[in-house]
Design brief:
Chain lengths: 233, 141
């Protein structure tokens, strides 16, 4: 376990990765505050209302196809996409994921400076606290596993979970992310999956019991690339 | 009586989501002014030549703790504070340490928000805002 520096942050929205443009990024988990103070109270009271999380991104303006300006042109107000802020790039590193609207994109300019961009996202419901998954790659040609990518949460849970998948590249035919779990780390049970051949994002929902160990098998004959985060319910 | 530096002395403890009090001092570098505060009620009348006040009920102050992000499980700031958003829990603040007899503030608070972020060339950091619920106890360690 470790402290992290800014270069450990990776910000993904849908199939967009503005890594080389990101200057500042943050996720805020927040609730509304309600005041239930009555005349009989000797001090003000506080109660939690609804969650009202917010995610902000600021960076350098870049017109590359996979960068933030392309994301805002394609997705601003059109609907939600998966949003993840990773704090580290190793399997098991902390990540915050959810689905969010891209609400605002602005480009401030200042003489003598680089062109910049500021983007605000609004999560649809709450952002989830999760872990970065790796991908176990199994190809129909029989190539053996090249990565395990298992995360270990220490114990099972009973409130389900979500695997958030960012498909960052496609090639040939579809890739098939398949979520699997295990009580032992050696015998695996497939849970749910998708088949994808376009850049974008997917949510794989898991209901009920989720075992201690979780991983994603990246099947299919395509050569696409993806990044996945698992959030327990 | 003496003056005290913060480093090596100040202690802050916050309940985790399961109600276990966790010492976060190793992960905090800033805590906003935190103590006890009452509301001020104006009772000035025509007969007064200066403003008059009486104390009202205690104010539900907000306080912020912040520091470097750390993903240590169970006892680290991310493990303790992120799951606390939207819940009530106990806090204890020892401005000059936990030596017996030194000042201690404590109470219950609602975790309003937990923010994680970073800026280029800097560290990843967290900031947690708490809102007091009910009275603050001014006591000693």
């Amino acid at each position: 376990m470790a402290k992290k520096i800014a270069s450990d942050i990776r910000f993904l929205y849908g199939g967009y990765d503005p890594g080389t443009s990101t200057v500042r990024a943050s996720v805020t988990l927040e609730v509304e505050t309600l005041d239930p103070t009555a005349v009989t109270d000797a001090a003000e009271r506080a109660l939690a209302g609804n969650r009202k999380d917010i995610v902000e991104w600021a960076g350098l303006f870049d017109d590359a196809p996979g960068d933030m300006d392309a994301a805002q042109a394609a997705l601003l107000t059109t609907g939600t996409a998966v949003l993840s802020m990773l704090i580290g790039t190793a399997v098991g590193d902390r990540a915050y994921s959810g689905t969010a609207y891209l609400l605002a994109a602005k480009a401030p300019a200042k003489l003598g400076d680089l062109m910049r961009q500021e983007v605000t996202f609004k999560p649809d419901q709450a952002m989830g606290r999760g872990l970065l998954l790796g991908h176990r790659t199994v190809k129909p040609s029989g190539t053996s596993d090249v990565a395990t990518g298992t995360i270990d949460d220490g114990t099972l849970s009973i409130a389900g979970g979500v695997v958030y998948v960012h498909i960052l590249g496609v090639g040939g035919s579809a890739i098939q992310p398949l979520a699997e779990h295990s009580a032992t780390g050696t015998t695996w049970t497939p849970v749910a999956g998708v088949s994808v051949n376009v850049i974008g994002s997917q949510k794989i929902s898991i209901t009920g019991t989720v075992q201690r160990y979780v991983r994603v098998e990246l099947g299919g004959a395509g050569t696409g690339t993806a990044t996945s985060v698992f959030v327990r319910g | 009586m003496a003056k005290y530096k913060v480093s090596g002395n100040s202690v802050v403890k916050i309940d985790d989501a399961l109600g276990t009090l966790r010492d976060l001092s190793a992960y905090v570098d800033t805590i906003s002014a935190l103590g006890k505060e009452v509301q001020e009620l104006d009772v000035t009348s025509f007969a007064d030549t200066a403003e008059r006040v009486i104390a009202g009920i205690e104010t539900a102050q907000e306080f912020t703790i912040s520091g470097h992000f750390d993903d240590t499980g169970t006892t680290g700031p991310d493990a303790v504070l992120a799951p606390r958003v939207g819940t009530l829990g106990t806090w204890e603040w020892y401005p000059i340490g936990t030596t017996s007899g030194r000042r201690k503030f404590s109470g219950e608070s609602l975790c309003k928000s937990y923010k994680i972020g970073g800026e280029v060339k800097g560290r990843v950091q967290y900031e947690c805002v708490m809102k007091q619920d009910g009275t603050v106890v001014v006591g000693t360690a």
